[in-house]
Amino acid sequence: MKKTDNRGRITLRRKTFLIAGAVVLTLVLLAWVFLIVGVLKNGKKSDGKKSSKGKANGKNVTAEEYQIPEVPKGYVLVFRKTEHYSIGPNGERALEFSREYDENGLCTAEIRYYDDGPVRQRRNIYTYDEEGRTKSCTKYYMVDEWKKSELTTYEYDERGIIRKESTNYYDYDYDVEYTALYNENGDMTERRNTVAGHDIALEERIYDDNGRLTEIRTNVDRTVYLYGKSGQKLRRTIYENSGKKTSEEVFLSETESNLFRYDGEGNRHLFEKREYDEYGNIVHETDYNMDGSVMHEGDDLVCEYDEKGNPTKYISVKNGVIVTWDEWELEYIGEYEVGVKYTSKDENGKIQYVLEKKYDSDGHITEKSICDSVGNANPVTYSEYDSYGNALRTIEITDGLNKTVTDEMKYIPLAIPEKFATEYDLREK
């Protein structure tokens, strides 16, 4: 309690002073405890959280700015792009797309923005099942007002294999329905486009008990495959629906075949000789005229492919001399392939130049450089990154000196169950 002394000044009782001192001391001790706990907590990584390295030219973005969530065991920290801007020559920013995500890091909504043409925006809405598989995608577009333009739904069996895909959309005053069916192996067995109840495009595929494709039927023709007792390919024949034979490919071995065409009178003529690689890709072919002579005599093309059938090498030869020699190295972002390295060689196989690229999870180029014949690298595009490896902006170099920002990106950090993380999420940064 306060009291007034004989000189009129306000003083404190001794008991009150001791209580106040104890309170202050307690607060100081609590502050030190909280400080020590905070340091220990920040210094210890959460279970399941991957560390990530920053880039030398990256701008540090702290956890406080990103508001990094807690990452429990069995979860991983991921970053999802929420906005992507293109930057014009005068610095003007235009929003290209924005996205929203659910608690599993799956995109639930995407809006694309356009600055030309009648469509001003396109909005995609996605739904998923409990395993993260896409159940539906609804597309809208805006001209004067929002309109639903397309709905795609997917059905899976208990093993997660797709069994049906359906799309309904509006086109030229008609409702169109596209349907694709799949068997228990995930192979397509039927697809059709129906307009006002009428099939305008149809394809059916038939397989044998060993899962080999034996026949393809469409609105216009029928393709029949014949195999030997050991499962080797023997023949692929195409008929018009009238029964008239139009072409036939005869396999001489697993890697060689002759392709024949039939004229209007039913006569068979050698059209091409083909060579295949182990994946069934054509690596060499020679064309023939109707009289049996070699077409484009002296010209040749040698190709190589990867295991997914994408080209990795083209060598063009004319009169026995290599004209062009191109090589590619590919990577895959989801189901899409992107070229990460392109090499051009001369007729002697000497490197002329090399173009190398890096991409983000959307397939957007984040770094690009050109190396000359002696290996000097000249960057033409590069990105600045945050401390978590996310590209914040893309910079283009012109004339070897001028630097212009062409793209800017924003992200949101999420802690998601590991089973929903993509290969790109789990990559080493």
Number of strand elements: 28
Principal-axis shape equals globular
- Give me the number of helical elements: 2
Strand content: over 45%
What is the average of the pLDDT values? 82
State the share of residues found in helices, binned by percent.
Answer: under 10%
Tell me the series of helices and strands, N- to C-terminal. EEHHEEEEEEEEEEEEEEEEEEEEEEEEEE
- Poorly predicted regions are 1-60
| Domains (count) | 1
> Biggest β-sheet, characterized?
26 strands, antiparallel
What does this structure look like?
The protein has two helices and 28 strands. The protein has 429 residues and is mostly beta strands. The longest helix has 30 residues, at 14-43. The protein starts with a strand and ends in a 12-residue tail after the last strand. 6% of the residues are buried. Mean pLDDT is 82; it is low at 1-60.
Give short descriptive properties of this protein.
429 residues; 8% helix; disordered N terminus
Provide a compact summary of the structure.
The chain is mainly β and 429 residues long. It has helices spanning 14-43, 63-66; strands at 2-4, 10-12, 75-87, 93-101, 107-113, 121-128, 134-142, 146-156, 162-171, 174-182, 188-195, 198-207, 213-218, 221-227, 233-240, 245-251, 256-262, 268-276, 282-287, 299-305, 311-318, 321-333, 336-345, 351-359, 365-371, 377-385, 391-398, 402-417.
Write the layout of secondary structure elements.
Elements lengths: L1 E3 L5 E3 L1 H30 L19 H4 L8 E13 L5 E9 L5 E7 L7 E8 L5 E9 L3 E11 L5 E10 L2 E9 L5 E8 L2 E10 L5 E6 L2 E7 L5 E8 L4 E7 L4 E7 L5 E9 L5 E6 L11 E7 L5 E8 L2 E13 L2 E10 L5 E9 L5 E7 L5 E9 L5 E8 L3 E16 L12
